[in-house]
Amino acid sequence: MSPDAKKETAQEDLAALSAEVDLLAKIPIGYARKHLLLPCRGSDGSLVVLSGRPEATHAQDEIRFLVGPVRFVPAPEEVILKKIDAAYERSHAPEREIVEGLSGDWELDVEAAFEETRDLLESPDEGPVIKFVHSLIFRAIRERSSDIHVEPFEKELVIRNRVDGILYPMVAAPRKWHAPVVSRIKVMASLDIGERRLPQDGRIRIRLGGKEIDIRVSVVPTAFGERAVLRILDRSNLLLGLEDIGLVPGDLASLTRLLGRSNGILLVTGPTGSGKTTTLYAALRRLDSGTKNIITIEDPVEYQVHGIGQIQINPKIHLTFASGLRSILRQDPDIIMVGEIRDSETAEIAIQASLTGHLVLSTLHTNDSASAVTRLVDMGIEPFLVASSLTAVIAQRLVRKLCPDCRVPYAPSPAQWREVGLSGEPAGRFFAAGGCPSCMNTGYRGRVGIFEILIVDDRLRALILERADSEGIKAFAASRGMRTILAAGAEKVCAGITSAEEVLRVTQEE
């Protein structure tokens, strides 16, 4: 390269270069990644190729043969890989185009088994059904969906995605597509495609843009055929710390102090999908110092965590929460995480473990923190055991965050002010959901937790021993400064993070 050319490339603004879409179809993503080459348009409209390996002259010669004379611009490996992934994701055919392009009768080629480690973006020449299913998964991941629902009805096949806790219809296809699409999903999940009468569960592991993605698959028979739900396990949630899940500074300090104890039970409660598992994983990450023996028993193990022993229950071989918990106690644990306390046997063992010098983290399905106390007593646990072992209960919900690009401010009426639990006259402004391309016109983007933390102190232990009901426990805790979920949601509303309607939606059962 001449000195002038070196000077020119040094001054090239890499951020201003955009991928040349017309050439992406001619260059497989695997080739682009292997040789770190990406054709782009410069700010002056000229064709350039980003190159992460200037010494790979044979690859550059192949690109010149394909596109003609071209200027190569050196770029760092991490920059070019990020641009390659983003470019090929944008150019990937959306599932609606695939749907519209299908015609005539076709059958699924079950011989084309999906390879575990294959990149979803590297399959442009697959059959129409395979392309369709891959595109559904690609779009769901791109749009931050947590679940894909494949639902057969009398005359059509409906695909819906759950984004930020809400189901949105995505695609409607002819009814005859149902069997091949579900069969393809079964092949990917290593399920029995010939068994259509019994529920089946499986798992898919794929790569998308170089990132590992885990997908949990559930298939159940319904009146109109098999219904499939694909749960996308976002590993980025596993990386969330306690400071990232929405705890205010005071609650974060309280929870950190509780996790510093060497024994006791800490419960996280809330309905399905309220983020309990994410909170527990964030707590485990805070506790995982490398000097403690941490063992979990879960159903299922959604994420593998380095340095933590994880057990998945299997009722078929009588490995339940209770039996697994008994075995864990013989493993010299410091900290135990039980995925869920479902019965009195599990509750009793967890309490005994906490009383013998173990910190136990677990979940319960109750609406608020005070109800968790009475639920344990209703299970048959003696109140004195609950009072002596329970250290705190965290009740939580997930609220959707307003899209910062399109949220709309407004002055709340006195009724709206009081509706979210605020007293006095309105003294501030609320924000409502708008709608723009960055949030798919929903007005919301992402979710954050709202929390109610009930700390069990000596006065509260006395109430538990008296078998006080949940209303009495909650009223007492509130009188001593406990912030309810509704009050925590009102703080998020006043801060412009979420809307009043969203807080009321997730707390209306209170």
Classify the secondary structure makeup into a structural class.
alpha/beta
| Helical content class | 25-40%
Provide a count of the helices.
20
Give a quick account of the main beta sheet: strands, pairing sense, barrel closure: 7 strands, mixed
What does this structure look like?
The chain is α/β, with parallel strands linked by helices and 510 residues long. It has helices spanning 3-10, 21-24, 29-35, 57-67, 77-91, 95-101, 128-142, 178-188, 235-238, 249-259, 276-287, 321-328, 344-355, 369-378, 383-389, 414-419, 458-465, 470-479, 485-494, 500-507; strands at residues 18-19, 37-41, 47-51, 71-74, 145-152, 156-163, 166-174, 200-208, 211-222, 225-233, 264-269, 294-298, 309-312, 335-338, 359-364, 390-402, 408-410, 430-432, 444-455. The strands form four sheets. The chain has a seven-stranded mixed beta sheet, sandwiched between helices. It has a six-stranded antiparallel beta sheet with strand order 7-6-5-10-9-8, covered by helices on one side. A hairpin with a 5-residue loop joins strand 2 and strand 3. The model is unreliable at 1-11, 100-118 and 120-126 (pLDDT under 50).
